[in-house]
Structure formats: C-alpha cells, structure tokens
Design a protein that fits this description.
Strand content of chain B: 35-45%
CATH topology of the domain at 24-75 and 86-121 in chain B: Immunoglobulin-like
Number of helices of chain B: 0
Structural class of chain B: mainly beta
Shape of chain A: elongated
Number of domains of chain A: 2
Order of helices and strands of chain B: EEEEEEEEEE
Oligomer: heterodimer
Number of helices of chain A: 2
Distance between the termini of chain B: 72 Å
Mean pLDDT of chain B: 83
Strand order of the largest sheet of chain A: 1-2-8-7
Shape of chain B: globular
CATH class of the domain at 24-75 and 86-121 in chain B: Mainly Beta
Mean pLDDT of chain A: 80
Largest sheet of chain A: 4 strands, antiparallel
Strand order of the largest sheet of chain B: 1-2-8-6-5
Order of helices and strands of chain A: HHEEEEEEEE
Radius of gyration of chain B: 19 Å
Distance between the termini of chain A: 50 Å
Helix content of chain A: 10-25%
Largest sheet of chain B: 5 strands, mixed
Number of strands of chain A: 8
CATH topology of the largest domain in chain A: Immunoglobulin-like
CATH architecture of the largest domain in chain A: Sandwich
Strand content of chain A: 25-35%
Low-confidence stretches of chain B: none
Largest interface: A-B, 55 and 43 residues
CATH architecture of the domain at 24-75 and 86-121 in chain B: Sandwich
C-alpha cells in the first residue's frame, strides 16, 4: 500500500496486468471490427437521413427517422451487401397570409447509400413505415447465419 | 447533370435540450424541429416527433406556456447489437410562451407519420382582460 501512494499512477495501472491486456485486446478487436466492415461505428456519416444499423441472429435492421414522409415518396433498393434509401420530403405551403414565427423543418431531396455488414437475402427484404420511422428488415443470407455445432 | 429541382436535405444531429427541466424519468431529451405560423384566426404549431405514438404524446397549455412532451419507445429489439448508431431515441420536449390568448376549448391536435399538427385558435378579443395588481 505504501509505495502505491507515492507513485502517481491511476489505480488500474497497478492492478492485475492481465486485466489490462484483456482490456487492450478488446479495444483492438473493436477497432479492427470497425475497419473490416468499412463502417465507422458511433459516428455520423453526414448524410440525411441519420440511420441506425443493427443485427440479431437472423436479420440486419436499418432504421431512419423520416417524420412527415409518405410511403410513396420513399424509394428503397437493396443489393446483396448494400442498401439505398432515397426520396423527397415535401412540406406543403400553408396558405398565403401566414406569418412564420419559427421555420425549422426542412424539405428537399435525399439519397443515401448504406453498406451492410454482411450479405442479405434481397428477395425477403421488408420495409415498414410507422410514426415517422422507417424500418427495413434484411434477412441474412444462409451463409451469414451462425450455425450451432454439436459436440459429440 | 440534370437541374436540381429542390435542394437536398442536410443531415442534422438531433438536438439535446439546452436547459433541461428537472426530469422524473431517466433518459435522453431532444428538441424537436418545429414550424410555427399564424394567420388572423389561429396559431399553428407543426412539430417533427418521429417515433411518438398518440398515447405517448402529452400537450399541455397552462397560462401562456405550451409544452409538448413525446416519449419514444426504443425501436430496437432485445437481441440486437449495433453496427452504426447515428441517432438516439428518448423523449422530445419543447416549451413555448404564447403571446396571444388561445381559446382552450377549440384546440385541435393531430399526429400523423410522426408529425404533430396543433391548431390553437385565437380567442376573440371582446373581453378586455383586467389585471389585478396586489400591493405587497
């Protein structure tokens, strides 16, 4: 205890060295995972709409916030490993003699390409639009699904 | 390249509430984008509230303060892991002070595709308001 107080190191540095290796290994894994998929995780690509991509065992999920859009104004196409979302957000005119206090909502065109983390079965891609949130469910191709291996 | 028909939408990060009021519920708080406009008869507030269901929306008008509070249920399922996360979800909150006197009995609100449209009819200015000043 005594020398520890004199060395001005944060606590985790004098702890179990194996824990540090473990931590470092995990950080490295996370980094390399980011590179492998070509997608920077937890950052903003700067393209409208802002999109979340996630996965579970069977599917990839792509979600985007598109309030006030109509389904017919959204165009989605998917290839084996990428997804494109495009469309136009229209904000109708509110009459001639209105005076604005605030005008923050934006109208315009958008198109975005998203690389998927793995290959998908394009025939079974489904999209739904509810409460202004677009959800695209992309079933993973059979090769991407994890297989349970029995130990004999 | 063909001529641009309309401008392209810029990606904007969801805005956190700058001065958040005291919360009783943990979670994130966002400022929704709004349009507010008026004509001679009414004031209209249009707010982008993606992910808010009608039962999770609360509109409150007290004296001159209009509050819009909308809760968003987490859209992700339990077994999902993130790849890209560009937006977060939580609660939308915005408060306005109205200068006009509103006829509270005629307020209309509709929520469609994540957009709230709130019509606030102005009260006829027939009755001049009496202001009581109390000596203190």
């Amino acid at each position: 205890m005594f020398p520890k107080r004199f060395i001005d190191f944060p606590d985790w540095n004098v702890g179990n060295p194996f824990l540090d290796f473990e931590r470092m290994r995990r950080e490295m894994n996370r980094l390399s995972e980011g590179f492998r998929s070509g997608l920077p995780s937890f950052s903003n690509a700067g393209v409208f709409p802002l999109t979340n991509v996630s996965e579970d065992i069977n599917n990839y999920y792509v979600r985007a916030e598109l309030p006030g859009m109509n389904t017919e104004d959204i165009e989605i196409s998917a290839t084996d490993s990428s997804l494109s979302i495009s469309g136009q957000r229209i904000i109708p005119r509110e009459g001639d003699n209105v005076r604005y206090h605030r005008r923050e909502r934006e109208a315009g065109k958008f198109s975005r390409m998203i690389s998927l983390p793995g290959s998908v079965d394009t025939d079974k891609v489904e999209a739904s639009f509810m409460d202004g949130i677009l959800t695209i469910v992309l079933p993973k191709s059979e090769a991407m699904k994890p297989k349970q291996i029995e130990v004999k | 390249m063909t001529e641009m028909i309309s401008k392209e939408i810029q990606a904007r990060e969801k805005k956190d509430v700058a001065a958040a009021p005291e919360q009783t519920k943990p979670g994130l708080l966002f400022t929704p984008a709004v349009d507010i406009f008026e004509n001679d008869q009414e004031l209209t507030v249009v707010a982008d509230l993606p992910g808010v269901k009608p039962q999770n929306l609360e509109i409150d008008l007290r004296k001159n303060t209009l509050s819009i509070i909308g809760d968003v249920e987490t859209p992700e399922g339990p077994g999902e892991t993130d790849h890209i996360r560009e937006f977060r979800t939580g609660r939308f909150f915005r408060q306005f002070t109205l200068s006009e006197v509103i006829d509270q009995s005629k307020i209309e609100a509709s929520l469609k595709n994540g957009v709230l449209r709130l019509k606030l009819p102005k009260l006829e200015k027939a009755v001049p308001r009496k202001i009581m000043v109390q000596a203190g």
